[in-house]
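subagent[fold] <- orchestrator: predict structure for attached chain, return tokens only, no commentary.
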Amino acid sequence: MPDRNTYSDPLRHREVAATPEERVRQWFIGVLEGTSGVPRHQMMSEVPLHYGNKSWRADIVVYGPGGRPVALAECKRPDVTLNAGTAQQALRYSSLLPVKFIFLTNGNSTYVYERRDGSFSPRTDIPSYAEMSL
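subagent[fold] -> orchestrator:
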């Protein structure tokens, strides 16, 4: 039986520490799969990103047909306020992964942004996988 201090991550196929941020990440994987219809095999968590000598990890990346990244999610602990700094982090990642959608969530609040004409605009809903993949 798995330790109570871990989650079974369906994307990484292993047990991961049950941190507050991980709880949000696992919840949002479920939202993307259940609400938006994203197939589990079209998502990856903790995706490494590199630019020069800098390295980061995108919390969740959604891939469309052909393996093209279409969305990324930045997950924070529930006690972290989603602010301009959080948005800048996600925008930095989107400069390395040219996605159409960005999600920011702390499990209490979720913000959705869609790239239109080269910049991101807020949306009021989480798009379906079909819309992400257009």
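orchestrator: received. Logging for downstream: The chain has a mean pLDDT of 93. Residues 20-34 form the longest helix (15 residues).
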